[in-house]
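Provenance and format

Records in this collection were gathered into a single text stream. Each protein contributes a sequence line and a token line. The two records reproduced below are adjacent in the stream.
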Amino acid sequence: MVMVVGAGKADSLPSTDLVNSALLTSPQQTGVSSQSPLCPQCDTKTEKVWKDGTYTTFQGDTIQRWTCCRCGHRFSDPEELAASKKQTQHNFSQCTGKQIKNSTNSPDTYQICALEEAKNLEPTCIIKNVGVNAKIENHLTWMKKEGYKQATIDRRRAALYGLQKLNADLDDPESVKTTIADQNHWKASQKQVVVFAYDLYTKQYNLNWERPWYEAVRELPFIPQEREIDDLIAGVHKEIGLLLLIAKETGARAGEIYDLLWTDIDFEGRTLSIRAEKNSNPRRFQLSKKLQNMLECYPKKTEHIFNNYESLKNLRRTFERQRKGLAVKLCNPRLNQIKIHTLRHWKGTTEYAKTKDILHVMQTLGHKNIKNTLLYTQLVSVEEDKGYICKIAKTPMDAVSLIEDGFELHCSYGENDEIKLFRKRK
């Protein structure tokens, strides 16, 4: 019921529907555009893009977030971001006071712009700039020229900028040592990664630095059940599911799968070739019927198979988002522990459980050092306790179907051995 004080006639009052419509369509109430934008990842139509929360910028503007239900990409409307940026620049141009300028003491700091009304502020107030650092970017360019992989460069960028955000002076090795040592919530492995990143930085700029020693404790990896992997493959988007199925059948690294080309697949010979990374050996695998069908149905837009994602990092984030929702839907929090690299551990463990041949596992995973493969001998005892799934094949077609599903012949019985028993680990 709508009540208006001081109104003359009852028929002059606005209706409830009109009031609600005005409130819903008011740009001050919504703060977002009425029409959904296109997904920049796959150019999905408007009705396939859903609202997925909001976030507030440093200037106090509320920006709508969107999620594409086709590829899972989460993004903001470029037009809305541009409008917010333009309004911020307009507001800044109306401010009276000193312009922001570089400090002469450090290229990585900026002075705060103070209004005339804020007379209680110190004119020498300095804040740390966490933007682009010229020396870090120069170091990353040098790494690229030296032949480092892009994934390694991205990790080193995150480590160096992380030190800068923690107020560590990259030109002072003692300051970096103290900053790393003060991070009590970091694991030894994380500190080791940051130390290695800064160690290469000091070598390029000839800084006097003695590398501290942090020994990473190697933990046994999480090995999921095969049905949990199958549930994950069936529940995520088809592109993520294809990547997970390749990882399950080959045990390849995420970067090796992301770099796959269509020319690496021989559909006639039903083989898939893995071009190795991290100085490992290349491999070739036989395609299963299920994987071959998924690859044949997948659109071939470019020479790369996974072309809808700008980087492996974006693909991994999309997978983590979909995995989280699937874990809630299936009421199985163990799914959140499954990473793309977890399928590599699962493959090595199951292969050793089947063959008891450490050299076969070493060749399957592409290891050059057998010490890396010996980890899977420690995991196989846990795998053996899970038991088997048994199936009976009475006809040759039943046997063919079971073999394609991963079952192995265990024994035969009958007068002419016409009944065969197959098994597969759970």
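Adjacent record:
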Amino acid sequence: MGNVVKHLLNLVAHKRFYNDSDECTFEEIIGHNDVKRILTKAIFSNKPVHVLLVGLPGCAKTMFLTEIMRRFKSSLFVVGSNTSKAGLVNQLFERTPKFLLIDEVEKMNITDQTSLLHLMETGIISETKVNKTRQVELASWVFATANSCKNIVEPLLSRFLVLEISEYTFEQFREIAVSRLTKEKVDNYVASIVAEKIWNELGSRDIRDVVKVGRLASSIEEVSFIISMMKTKIK
């Protein structure tokens, strides 16, 4: 009977952590199937496995984090450039997240990066202020993104399973562009032209550029005009 009760309690805890969901399919993200598979295994591993997604802007790194944030209640999403050690530690004490999601972790300064080391290594967070110490033990998974590993301190980098996310092919890029823009009521043909011109004329692989142009242009002529202005600005 004791084992049955323990099993039921584990199921309750599982539902609480996982927002009544037993999967994370990343269905909104096109491609990157190998990354999806490994990241899903990490999410449901019995003990923390920390994962760093590395790739150029526009390759869906942030989308992986936001999908986890939407699926699981016990998540904390932060942006590296806006995160300080004191602020992060305070959030960890208050929220005690199962998943700590850090976008652009390489933009955290060195002191703030080192604040993650103890959490990832031991699961213990401690803080001392005016001779008062508080401490909490967390089983937290850290999932982070970075444009490159260049500015990440080696001790922190070594604690991650690093997955490199490749650039999209043009076909994938166009599929994503059409999917995103049609949700914003942009005509399919116009959306396809936006993707083609962003890719070929602007040389960009960032879906954010597609969204910018799609929101401004209501015709093919306007698409061409906006792209030409963006090219002038780059020069």
